[in-house]
What does this fold into?
Amino acid sequence: MKLEQIDTPAALIDVARMQRNIARMQAHMNTLGVAFRPHVKTTKCLDVVRAQIAAGARGITVSTLKEAEAFFAAGVDDILYAVSIAPSKLPRALALRRQGCKLKLVVDNPAAAAAIAAFGDQHGETFEVWIEVDTDGHRSGITPEQHTLLEVGRILHENGVTVGGVMTHAGSSYELNTPDALAALAEQERAGCVRAAQRLRDAGIACPAVSVGSTPTALAATQLEGVTEVRAGVYVLFDLVMHNVGVCALDDIALSVLATVIGHQPEKGWAILDAGWMAMSRDRGTSKQSHDYGYGVPCLLNGTPLTGYLLSGANQEHGILSPIDESAPTEDVTQHFPLGMKLRILPNHACATGAQFPEYHAVSPDGASVEWRRFHGW
It folds into this structure.
């Protein structure tokens, strides 16, 4: 199917850009001598994950148990569930383990560690658990020097639970935009996670895996001594937030939303599109960065950005395409963007925009597309 034939709004993946992004990240990890475990929450798409594994990825990272179940059913068995486990979800984790999935759980507090230990003992299962480390104050985890780190490690270790490793995510990297700042945070992330692992080992608790990662720090890292693997997710598609961070160009962004011009407000210089926030998502991540891209950057069907215009506003099913400079003389919007014209809109956040659609249209260099299904839910 050609782009002109696809009903809109629709999520498009530029396959050539995606493959280039995969190759870039994998080559960097190979150079640094570490395994790469992609975070598949960005696409939740088996076709994409197969391409990542074919390039050299070892295992995957997920953010929901539904992802773990779906990817395991498709043949991927080395899975890190990188969200602190709620005790109510342990039966689903047990079912995956019993089916042969090498599922790894994550905790960052003594209560969760004790709950896993008790549940495992009750059901005769030895879970593998990784401890989340906070290396940048971004969200969750235990700081490397905190006493709680050893407390959690001992609860697991002394109750027969396998401590598989430590993991961290330098999510504050999304707030940076210079190579030096990204490199410094990558080193902070590495050093903190390695230190946490060493403290556990010094206490007699085995800690074989040291897992770090965010797309910006993964690409900025220059050495990863003591690290065994890296995780990153949005790199596979990239987005405008990552462009502002400085780790990708606009023509690296592999995800776009296909939209159609459905009306005009000539006196305002507006073209109205059929892609509102239900298609683009409510995520306005670039509004907090150095360059605000509204709800997205419009491009021609061949991917060429339309300089001077943004998707400046969005209602549920309506997007407003308007000039960036409102004081500039307006062109005849009805002629420049005629009714029925199709455009591609680059999104702020690939994970959030992808989540609005049940499938992607994977577009090859010749303009033809095929449908790739994606997973929904938890």
User: Anything to note?
Assistant: The chain has a mean pLDDT of 97. The CA atoms of residues 276 and 318 lie 4 Å apart. The two ends are 31 Å apart (CA to CA).
